[in-house]
Amino acid sequence: MSAEAVPDAPAASSFAGELLAIVLPLAFIIAGLLVVLRLLRRRYGLTGPDAPLSILQILPLGPRERLVLVKSRSGRVFTVGVAAQNVSFITDLDHADIATPDKPEGDAP
Questions:
Q1: Mean of the per-residue pLDDT values for the chain?
Q2: Is 0.85 surpassed by the pTM of this model?
Q3: How far is CA 57 from the centre of its chain?
Q4: Secondary structure in 3-state letters for the chain
Q5: pLDDT in tens, 22-78
Q6: Phi and psi dihedrals of 87, rounded to 5?
Q7: Are strands 87-93 and 77-82 parallel, antiparallel or unpaired?
Q8: Using CA atoms in the order 90, 96, 99, 103, what is the torsion angle rounded to 10 degrees?
């Protein structure tokens, strides 16, 4: 019985090869998902200035509860209450309700 000596490959090149074999396909999958997401957003108009709805502000009320100001494409602004298991319409808002107040000229910041 003779023991044959097996030459060891450098550990660094083995590790780098295994890491590359994992990271490269993962990078292709992530890039593919980003491309698909971008195409879906363009196709269905989910974001951008011409989106049917846009969120103006989110006000947290608790760990899972919040008020959300939503603006429609026509300019209508309304408030929606969002909880863990429930979404409910609160009220319509006038433009005066959401306009920022003008600062008097004499006040310094």
A1: 80
A2: no
A3: 15
A4: CCCCCCCCCCHHHHHHHHHHHHHHHHHHHHHHHHHHHHHHHHHHCCCCCCCCEEEEEEEECCCCCEEEEEEECCCCEEEEEECCCCEEEEEEECHHHHCCCCCCCCCCC
A5: 999 999 999 999 999 888 877 776 666 667 788 888 999 999 999 999 888 888 899
A6: -130, 125
A7: antiparallel
A8: -130
